């Protein structure tokens, strides 16, 4: 506008998922050829472009493990102490689909009673037996208990029942092929790994090997461990949180606030990407909803930009503040800054159905972050609750009163909403609600439907790969009447579908 003129506030119209449909395109290939791999950050790719939200009712270690196994990734929430969040990272990194680098062990002088308790505590059936100097002295399993009457467990020592050295073992750093060979040749359940000095250096179990074959799409780091992300802020101990998470082995840090176009957060990203101690880790910044917001993160050196101000199912940011951008437009605008710089875009929040994943990718995203669609999974934190004969799980906004108030414990999530310095709970201005979603069973089944939906979208658009989908996908803007036509109508649904919930 000319200087001094008021810009036309109605010049731009924002569109969201329900405002558009994708046009069908010509498909000259078989559905089996479709590949859903997509970029996640500058340096990382996911076979399944799904990310579980950094929320305390969505992602802790169990969800992060399940997401990584499906080829996606989980971002551990930050409403936890630094130590607790780092411990969650550690749990994911230890859940190896191949080699356990730091197995649970037992000493030769432990009693069988202690062995039994330890087995129950860690839910494992056998242990390498390790002496005080760390040397492997034997291996013991539940089966070794069987030949000792329970009455004698309190007085019998592990050393009396274990299989002592020499044992079949492998060198630390053994290849997958060699390990498989040894397991097969000696019909072993467990293969201990030892270093040159005879100290235990790892453990391979047949079970873990089988598991890794069950998850062919799993997201893994260079050492074969599952990948995991974790959210951080900009306030207080944020730097210490970031470095502690890096020490624990986190793959991706998500500098995460409700409004990311903020000097303090951009400074945090810049520091993370320039400090020699941290710059090797991928950093995602967000959330933004405009081209200039995304550009600011690109200029700060970020590895991906997360987009979404107020689209989330539990968000009240737009009604409490009047600020936000409908999500399709927000993703498109952000991608205009990110695409030329080769920085991936993550569409965060507002997804209700699988069809919206492809819509987000066509609008300019490379991956999507999900909250409500995953909060009902078995692997999300919290118990299922029964109400009116149906099972539910709690789901709440990180800006809800429940997540931001202390209610007897420290809230670490207030700075996401720039209220870190608010000390009294009744002074908090919430930007989210607390609720529940229907229980949906294991993530594997939920992810199957979401990825299956994306597969179908790609086939209907005529795209074999995500880059093809992004290039070929075309939107048509629809009316409210068309949206009504899109959903089931004029019938009473009599059986619940696994991917459609009224
Ligand atoms: P969905 O729609 O998938 O959204 O449930 C998840 C995303 O919502 C954001 N989020 C919030 N936004 N107030 C907000 O305005 C909140 O309390 C809140 N909690 C989460 C967040 O980006 C998440 O990934």
Jot down its keywords.
502 residues; binds xanthosine-5'-monophosphate
Q: Roughly what percent helix?
A: 25-40%
Main sheet: strand order: 4-5-13-14-15-16-17-18
Structural class: alpha/beta
Q: What does the average pLDDT come to?
A: 92
Approximate strand percentage: 15-25%
Question: How many angstroms separate the termini?
Answer: 45 Å
Overall, the morphology is globular
In the predicted model, the low-confidence regions spanning at least 5 consecutive residues are: none
Outline the biggest β-sheet: 8 strands, parallel, barrel
Radius of gyration: 25 Å
The distinct bound ligands, ions and cofactors come out as:
xanthosine-5'-monophosphate
Helix count, DSSP H or I runs of 4 or more residues: 17
How many β strands by DSSP? 22
Binding site for IMP: 313, 348-350, 371-372, 395-399, 431
Catalytic activity: IMP + NAD(+) + H2O = XMP + NADH + H(+)
Enzyme class: oxidoreductase
Function: Catalyzes the conversion of inosine 5'-phosphate (IMP) to xanthosine 5'-phosphate (XMP), the first committed and rate-limiting step in the de novo synthesis of guanine nucleotides, and therefore plays an important role in the regulation of cell growth.
């Amino acid at each position: 506008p000319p200087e001094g003129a008021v810009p036309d506030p109605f010049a731009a119209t924002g569109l969201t998922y329900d405002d558009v449909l994708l046009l069908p395109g010509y498909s000259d290939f078989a559905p089996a050829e479709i590949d859903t791999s997509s970029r996640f950050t500058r340096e990382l790719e996911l076979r399944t472009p799904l990310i579980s939200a950094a929320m305390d009712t969505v992602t802790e270690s169990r969800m992060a493990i399940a997401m990584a196994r499906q080829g996606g990734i989980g971002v551990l929430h930050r409403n936890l102490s630094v130590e607790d969040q780092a411990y969650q990272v550690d749990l994911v990194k230890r859940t190896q689909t191949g080699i356990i680098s730091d197995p649970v062990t037992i000493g030769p002088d432990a009693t069988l009673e202690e062995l039994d308790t330890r087995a129950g505590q860690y839910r494992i059936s056998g242990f390498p037996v390790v002496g005080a100097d760390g040397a492997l002295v034997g291996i013991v399993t539940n089966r070794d208990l069987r030949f000792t009457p329970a009455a004698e467990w309190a007085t019998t020592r592990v050393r009396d029942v274990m299989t002592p050295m020499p044992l079949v073992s492998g060198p630390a750093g053994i290849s997958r092929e060699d390990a498989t060979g040894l397991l097969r040749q000696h019909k072993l359940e467990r293969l201990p790994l030892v270093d040159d000095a005879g100290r235990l250096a790892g453990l391979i179990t047949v079970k873990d090997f089988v598991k890794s074959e069950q998850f062919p799409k799993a997201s893994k780091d260079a050492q074969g461990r599952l990948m995991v992300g974790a959210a951080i802020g900009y306030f207080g101990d944020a730097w210490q949180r970031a470095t502690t998470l890096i020490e624990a082995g986190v793959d991706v840090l998500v500098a995460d606030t409700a409004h990311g176009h903020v000097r303090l957060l951009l400074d945090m990203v810049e520091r993370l990407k320039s400090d020699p101690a941290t710059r090797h880790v991928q950093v995602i910044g967000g959330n933004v909803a405009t081209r200039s917001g995304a550009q600011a993160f690109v200029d700060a050196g970020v590895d991906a930009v997360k987009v979404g101000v107020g689209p989330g199912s539990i968000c009240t940011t737009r009604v409490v503040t009047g600020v936000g951008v409908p999500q399709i437009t927000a993703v498109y605008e952000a991608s205009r800054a990110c695409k030329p710089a080769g920085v991936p875009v993550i569409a965060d929040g507002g997804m209700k159905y699988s069809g919206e994943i492809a819509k987000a990718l066509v609008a300019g995203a490379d991956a999507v972050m999900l909250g409500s669609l995953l909060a009902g999974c078995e692997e999300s934190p919290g118990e299922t609750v029964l109400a009116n004969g149906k099972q539910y799980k709690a789901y709440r906004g990180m800006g809800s009163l429940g997540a931001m108030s202390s209610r007897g414990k420290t809230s670490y999530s207030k700075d996401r909403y720039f209220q870190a310095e608010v000390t009294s709970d009744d002074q908090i201005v919430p930007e989210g609600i607390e609720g529940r979603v229907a229980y949906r069973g294991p993530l594997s089944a939920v992810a199957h439907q979401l990825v299956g939906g994306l597969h179908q979208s790609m086939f209907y658009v005529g795209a074999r790969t995500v880059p093809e989908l992004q290039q070929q996908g075309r939107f048509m803007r629809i009316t409210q009447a068309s949206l009504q036509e899109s959903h089931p109508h004029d019938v009473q649904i009599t059986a619940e579908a696994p991917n459609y919930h009224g």
